[in-house]
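DUF4411 family protein: structure, please.
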Amino acid sequence: MSDAKYVIDTCSLTKMRHTYPKDVFPTAWTKLTELSEAGIVISAEDVLEELSAFDDEILEWAQGQSEFFYPLNSSVQKAAIDILRQHPGLLDLKKNKSSGDPFIIATALCNDCLIVTEEKLSNSPIRPKIPNVGRAVGVECITIVEVFRREGLRV
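Here you go.
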């Protein structure tokens, strides 16, 4: 079993860029890097694909985290298929974007982790969000600020 505690979604990483710019909050970035290097915070490899749409500091940071992005092994793929069978509205095939959400949830399930996302619960049973599906499958969702709080970051 890994030391991972958290699986982070793309939106939490992009929040780092917008809300905690590296030049103003270097301590937050140092802490995220430490948690990544210790294997405490991980992500699904689809998140790297989503981040490649941005050519900025978060992509540069992500590309430097060699062990951060977990591969979509057969266990994760099977879990993602099960999630999509139960929650087909999690994917919006009309939008031209990566479909990493089921893999975030599946990676969390397979590694007994919490999900880190900035998404809020959806009011639509047709278009659930990560927190809706996380709740349904028994995985807690928290924000990046809550990770920092739990891991003792003080700036």
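Notes: The mean pLDDT is 91.
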